[in-house]
């Protein structure tokens, strides 16, 4: 069955390119890294408070994404006459780099606060290190890859589909069918979601380890 969840609209040019994003994204992490270093000199009570706040943000934002991300996707697909998958991917390209940057920053702050008050290699620190590694993979690896892949797929869809009747023509339906069965798209998205779930589990393990300490 052909995929009817595409609107036929093109993603804005500024959302297609990932050039220059990595340096700017890395700069967004610098305040969190600096705060983590400064916490090594701070009072232990302040370190614990900041650490828990960082973990709470990382956990809560991830739960929000896993709950409402699929709902946003479903709404965009359902309202394909004026939204479609293109709208969801545009939102992803606009918001996800900052989302994963803030998630990583929160994990860095949580680790810095814990590091200042406990053994470097305790269970909580190891769990948060794992969470940071997973967040970085999504931030600098899978996130940009997803943006590039989706933009190229939509561009190909527009080339294959009829510009005069994008939702009704046989060419459009065939293009949508090919789009919906693209294995690379599903694989990248699946890996990203898996890493996000693992990040959530690692942050939860950190919170539990701190609570039981």
UniProtKB/TrEMBL annotation:
The keyword Transmembrane applies. The chain crosses the membrane at residues 48-66, 123-142, 193-212. Residues 1-23 are annotated as: Disordered. Pfam families: DUF4149. GO terms for cellular component: membrane. Residues 54-152 form the TMEM205-like domain. The keyword Transmembrane helix applies. Residues 1-17 have a biased composition (Basic and acidic residues). Its main location: membrane. It comes from the Eukaryota. It is found in: Membrane. Keywords: Membrane, Transmembrane, Transmembrane helix. This is TMEM205-like domain-containing protein. It comes from Symbiodinium microadriaticum.
């Amino acid at each position: 069955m052909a995929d009817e969840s595409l609107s036929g609209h093109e993603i804005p040019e500024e959302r297609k390119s990932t050039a220059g994003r990595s340096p700017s994204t890395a700069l967004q992490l610098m305040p969190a890294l600096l705060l983590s270093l400064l916490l090594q000199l701070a009072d232990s009570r302040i370190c614990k408070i900041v650490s828990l706040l960082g973990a709470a943000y990382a956990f809560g934002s991830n739960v929000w994404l896993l709950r409402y991300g699929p709902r946003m996707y479903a709404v965009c697909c359902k309202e394909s006459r004026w939204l479609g998958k293109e709208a969801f991917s545009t939102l992803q390209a606009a918001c996800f780099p900052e989302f994963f940057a803030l998630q990583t920053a929160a994990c860095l702050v949580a680790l810095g606060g814990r590091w200042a008050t406990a053994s470097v290699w305790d269970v909580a620190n190891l769990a948060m290190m794992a969470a940071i590694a997973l967040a970085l993979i999504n931030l600098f690896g899978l996130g940009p890859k997803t943006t590039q892949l989706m933009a190229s797929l939509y561009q190909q869809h527009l080339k294959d589909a009829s510009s005069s009747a994008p939702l009704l023509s046989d060419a459009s339906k065939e293009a949508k069918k090919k789009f919906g069965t693209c294995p690379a798209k599903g694989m990248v998205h699946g890996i990203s979601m898996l890493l996000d779930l693992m990040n959530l589990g690692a942050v939860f393990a950190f919170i539990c380890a701190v609570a039981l300490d």
